[in-house]
## 1
Amino acid sequence: GQQVMQIPQYQHVQEGEDFTTYCNSSTTLSNIQWYKQRPGGHPVFLIQLVKSGEVKKQKRLTFQFGEAKKNSSLHITATQTTDVGTYFCAGPGANSKLTFGKGITLSVRP
Amino acid sequence: DVKVTQSSRYLVKRTGEKVFLECVQDMDHENMFWYRQDPGLGLRLIYFSYDVKMKEKGDIPEGYSVSREKKERFSLILESASTNQTSMYLCASSLLGLAGQETQYFGPGTRLLVL
């Protein structure tokens, strides 16, 4: 069935470095969502992208939907220790419900 | 703010016990979901419900059942707990919108240990 792929599952950066992660699908998506789960917490909705090529920003976070609506990226400028956590992308699955990627866990060295 | 609550943060049960995990949301959402989260496997959908007394199987329903007698409450039942059901269980809810476009709101999770 429809899957959204996130690779790698872990990434470590030095505080102050930029960070980019991607979410890929084999088929066109009607929309893509991003969630963040802090250590010990639960996933929290960050953003939804609907239009081809759409770019949205939240402070140091920039989200982009690909032109073909098959991929999305999350870019964090000048990472901080508050950015640690697991970032999930999610898109419509085979049963028309949201399907989550496996997530990427970001750690930041102070 | 949407609030999704789960009956327990931590639970320890023995193999073979019947386990009930309760989830309540206060925003009149039509959709409710149960996921389990395991390291390296992400979030896997167990069951979901889009209305009272309605339920649909997710990706991994085996060994689980659900109940939705009231709109705000969605229960996950492990009829006979097994050690491979040790996991973090997350409940979520959403409005009934365009399929696959609804934003989901998660509860704090229940970490279940089956001995």
## 2
Amino acid sequence: DTEVTQTPKHLVMGMTNKKSLKCEQHMGHRAMYWYKQKAKKPPELMFVYSYEKLSINESVPSRFSPECPNSSLLNLHLHALQPEDSALYLCASSLPQGNEKLFFGSGTQLSVL
Amino acid sequence: QKEVEQNSGPLSVPEGAIASLNCTYSDRVSQSFFWYRQYSGKSPELIMSIYSNGDKEDGRFTAQLNKASQYVSLLIRDSQPSDSATYLCAVTTGGFKTIFGAGTRLFVKA
């Protein structure tokens, strides 16, 4: 299985809502990532988990809260988002050594109203 | 600041031609180099990785790396309309951070 599965594919939420994005991989990868991508821009790293522990937080606002319940699952909890948070949110996984190629999920297109 | 530079394009080539995409990077200790293809509205997909100086070929794709010049390129032979996409050059310098270039939009005309 070489897929990274993300749900939902599309999400519309109000600024007072709480929602979660989910990501699952069964490639045995022990590094998992959240990226944010705005239109016509490259992906921007948000968080990295290595062996289920938070390894990198790129100074992301606290309205984004990541969680890695086990080696296959990665969640991103969203609360009190702003319209400027509307973007494509990408989950990725890789081998845990660093300097590795990334396998991306199909992404969640998020719109904040 | 570590940077990866690409010409944003669009690069337009006729079907069957060779498309040449270029990338430069600023950090001399960069270790791994990747090309990702991203179709509009879709997620990036790895198409090539290269780790040492020289050429690496995979089907119609050839990646070239020159660490002395801090230069990476991707050649697409026999370009097809289905190759029309944005190509992201990406570099790692150790650890889990991948630095992406802004991407080059390629348009292959039928």
